[in-house]
Amino acid sequence: MSGWDSLCYLAYAQSGQTMDLPLHHGIGYALLLRGFMLATNALQRATAYCNVAVAFLFAGILTGGFVRRFGKVGLLGACSSLLNFAILENFGRTMSEALFILLLTISCFLLEKALFNGRMCCLILSSLAMAAACLTRYAGISFLATSTLIVWSAGKRTLRGFWVAMIYGIVAVLPLLSVMAWNLAFRGTAANRVLAFHLPRLSEFADAGAMVASWVLPDRLWLAFPFLTWTLLALAGVGLFVVCIRSIFHRDVQSLFWWLPVGGYLLFLLAAFTFFDSNISYDRRMLSPIVCFVTGGFCLQARRGNRWKTISLALLLGYLSLLGAWRAKSYVKPRFAHGAGYYGAAWDQSQLVSRLGQEVATRIVYSNADMGFHARGIPEIRGIVCTKAASSWHEIPNWKDAYKNMISDLANGAILARVSLESGFWREEYVPLEQIIHDAGLELLAAYPDGAIWGVPSLKSEFSLTP
C-alpha cells in the first residue's frame, strides 16, 4: 500500500463517516473497503481480504469470459492479461484500480451478451456495472462514453438504437451525477478539481511509451534498442487509429467492442492531464485498464484470421504469458516474504521510523513521509508545506503563512525528518529541503540508512549523529 489515494480510502474505512468519503477519487473502493472493515474489524486484514476477493473474482470472470468467447486462444489471452505486471501490481495495493478493472470486465462481458445475444436484461446489468465502475474511478466516464457509442452502432444507428444507447448511458451515469451533486451541495465541490491548462511534457509521453514497451519486451531489449522500440510503438498507435476508424465506418461492432475503449481511454487521460490533473503520470497503474481490451482485440483477430494468423497471435499471447510469469515471480516472491508498502519489512525494521514514532509523544514532527505514518496509525506526523497544488501546479493560496508556522515550530523545538522509504521522496511541490534548513536554522541531528533528522542546535544532546 502506498500513496495519498490509499489514505483517503483507509480514512473512510476506519471512520465510516460520510464526510470522510473520498472527494478527489471515486467512492466505490472506499465503500467496499468499509464493508470488509466491518466484517474483519482489522484494517490491514480488511485490505488484504478485499484485494484477494477482487483478484479471485477478476481471474474467474476474465478467464471464463475469454474462454467462452474465444476458445483455446481465449485461455492464452486470459493468462497473458492476468500475468501482465500492470494488472498484477494493482492487486497488491490499497488502490481502486483492481476493483475498477473487475467492474469494467463484468460490464464488458454483460454488454457482449446483450449486443450479440439480444438479452436486454444483460444490457441493464452491464449499465449498472458501468455505473459502479464510474463511482470507483472517474475515468470510467471514458469507457461509458465508448460503450454507449458501441450500443448505438450495434443498433445500426437507427432511432430505436439511439434510444437504447441513451437508456444505457443514463442508467450508468446517473449514480455518479447524484454523488457529484451531493458533493457540490454539502462539500462545496463536485470532484475537487479545477479547470487549469497545463500542456503535457514530452517526457510524459516518453514514460508512457517506455511503460507500454515493457509490457511486450524484456527490459534489456527495449532499453538497448530505443529506436526500434519507438518505431514499433508508433506503428502500433497508427494501427489502433486505423482499426478504430475502419470499425466505425464498416460498423464492425465486434472489433469496435475491443479497440474503441482503448482509444477513448487514452484520449481521456490526455484531456485529464491537460485540463485537470497535472500530476497524472502514464505509469502501469494508469494504463492498466486497457490491457484486457487489447488482449481481447488480439483474441478476436486470432479467431477471425486464417490458420497462420491464428498461430502467430496464439504464439504472441503465449510469449506474453511467459514474460508475465517470469516478471510475476520476481514481484510476488519478496512480497510474500517481506510484505509491501507501508506494511512491509523496510518500514517495520526502520530505526528512523521507530524513533519518529516515539518523538511524536513529546514534540512536533514534520516529515515528507507523513502519509506513510498516517497509514501506520501515527497521524500526529505533519507533512511538509506545499507551494503548489499537485493536481494543477497552481500556487496554493496562503502557503507562505503555513510555511511561516512550520518554520516557527522548527525554531522552537520541532524536528524535521526526511524518510527515503517507499513514497518517501521529496515531492516537487514541497518547499525545498535546503530552504527549510536555512530558514529555521537547523542542523543535522541524526543520520540513518533510510533518512535523517534535523533540528535546532539545542537538541543535539538528545540525539546521536550515527544511531
Describe this structure as you would to a colleague.
The chain has 467 residues and is mainly alpha-helical. The chain folds into 2 domains: 4-338, no CATH class; 345-462, no CATH class. Helices cover 66% and strands 4% of the residues. The chain has helices at residues 4-15, 28-40, 43-70, 72-82, 85-90, 97-117, 120-136, 140-154, 159-187, 202-216, 219-224, 226-249, 253-275, 284-287, 291-304, 307-338, 345-348, 351-359, 370-375, 399-411, 433-440; strands spanning 365-367, 415-419, 443-448, 451-455. It has a 4-stranded mixed beta sheet, with helices on both faces. A hairpin with a 2-residue loop joins β3 (443-448) and β4. It is globular, with a radius of gyration of 24 Å. The two termini are 28 Å apart.
Q: What is the β-strand count? A: 4
Instruction: Report on the biggest sheet.
Output: 4 strands, mixed
Mean pLDDT: 83
**What percentage of amino acids are in beta strands?**
under 5%
Overall shape: it is: globular
- Spans of at least 5 consecutive residues whose pLDDT stays below 50 are none
Number of helices: 21
Structural class: mainly alpha
Share of helical residues:
55-70%
Radius of gyration: 24 Å
Q: H/E element string?
A: HHHHHHHHHHHHHHHHHHEHHEHEE
Strand order of the largest sheet: 1-2-4-3
Gap between N and C termini:
28 Å
Q: How are the secondary structure elements laid out?
A:
Layout: H1 4-15, H2 28-40, H3 43-70, H4 72-82, H5 85-90, H6 97-117, H7 120-136, H8 140-154, H9 159-187, H10 202-216, H11 219-224, H12 226-249, H13 253-275, H14 284-287, H15 291-304, H16 307-338, H17 345-348, H18 351-359, E1 365-367, H19 370-375, H20 399-411, E2 415-419, H21 433-440, E3 443-448, E4 451-455
Parallel strand pairs: 1-2
Antiparallel strand pairs: 2-4, 3-4
